[in-house]
Amino acid sequence: MIIALDKVTIGARETQAAVATMENILARRAGVSAERVAFRLDNMTLQLEQADADGIRGIAFEVRDLDAAIRSAERRALEPRPPASLPEGRTVRLSEEGTHGVPTRLIQYTSPRTVAHAVAIAEGAVTGLDHIVIRTTHPNRAAALYGARLGLDMRLDRTEPKWGSRLMFFRCGDLIVEVVHDLKDEPSDAPDRLWGLSWRVADAAAANARLKANGVDVSDVRPGRKPGTRVFTVRDGTLGVPTLIVEPSRR
Fold this sequence. Notes:
The chain is α+β, with helices and mostly antiparallel strands and 251 residues long. The protein has two domains: 2-109, Roll (2,3-Dihydroxybiphenyl 1,2-Dioxygenase, domain 1); 126-247, Roll (2,3-Dihydroxybiphenyl 1,2-Dioxygenase, domain 1). Helix content is 17%, strand content 40%. The chain contains four helices and 16 strands. The strands form two sheets. An eight-stranded mixed β-sheet has the order 2-3-4-1-5-8-7-6. The longest helix is centred in the first third of the chain and has 12 residues, at 15-26. It is globular and about 50 Å long.
């Protein structure tokens, strides 16, 4: 049903300031039109929208056949709403009850994208998304949603006491949907939360130096948990979104 994570939407109290903020983080120029402000990257699009608070507000998955996806969603108790037209295709919203509080859409493209690829404006530019992090209060419920009902490929299900977490990785296109449960929290029916983003760069040291030069509070570059990767944390200027920068393994 799903072939890629197409879009992540971040809400911002001040849209104009948010554009400057994300251009600084991504080192790419936003595409601005009457309908949207967006950064189209190699493997997904980041969209900004006006909101009462900063933070991730929703995700959209790309499908090849929206009508077939709607039928599957109906059979799997995802309660799709009536589809809507877009300039480049069609989209449908799934019920937040069905997705446990995570605003989720499905989209099918039938014509070329209206947003051009975001042009790099500095060295160490972000190329795409490495993974999106969703926090859950009920890991088995989340595993059933993302693995069985949405049909993503579960690549890892690991409980790691030294990290205090159960981690589940679902492959979606060439990125990962990471679902995290804090072991200290008893499973509950509370909603899941869209929480953090990990951006992919070709050179972590160059990206780190660029952000430091621009006055952004970042950690030093360090080895990532996945062998061969290098990462660093962005501590501010992220519109309230916990943010990691990842240089993938060259192997």
